[in-house]
Design goal:
With 200 residues, this protein is mainly β. It has a single domain, classed as Beta Barrel (Lipocalin), CATH 2.40.128. 11% of the residues lie in helices and 52% in strands. A 10-stranded antiparallel barrel has the order 1-2-3-5-6-7-8-10-11-12. A hairpin with a 4-residue loop joins strand 2 and strand 3. It is globular and about 45 Å long. InterPro entries: DUF4166. This is DUF4166 domain-containing protein.
Amino acid sequence: MSIYKQVLGDEFNQLHSMLQKRYALMSTKPVTGKGVMLDIKGAPWFLKPMMKLLTKRKLLFPEQGSQVPFMINNTPRSNGKQIYWERAFYFPHQTRYFNALMSLDEERLVIKDYLGEPPLMYSDLVFSVEDGALLIRSLKQRLVIGSIEVPLPKWFQGVATVKEDYHDEKEKFGISVQVNNPILGQLFHYKGEFTSEDLT
């Protein structure tokens, strides 16, 4: 059974049928989406050097723009117990990535999200459904240093809010990601839409 179906329980059946199909299928085979990021915004200017360093770990990036082509690929690992997320953003002169590896904590019923390659950040994710859309919120976060994970104080965390839905009239998925810091405000934001031939 999909780790996302497990974490959502009966709520999974409240998702739009195309979201149900997407999140169930990615536990059995690679699922690829291609589309356009309508808007990408980054952190304040003084954080740009740090964002550039994070590109080496395929975590965040300093570039901003609109109408940016992108690809999202979800690949099952460990017989579907882990899902590898690869997100590529094709800027005019540079391809940037925002990658992660997700798995299920069955006791706490949260998704464990390791961000970057190799992982640099860890976050607990809680999933819910609203009007057929999938909502994801980050909770506790840790800095990953090799085999050591250091809890981050709240003021140092990047709190993520994600919404994924499906637009019947366009026959496209919609995605919106917002990452904010309690002190610095917005660290990262993107909003876009995509299609997936694997689901048609």
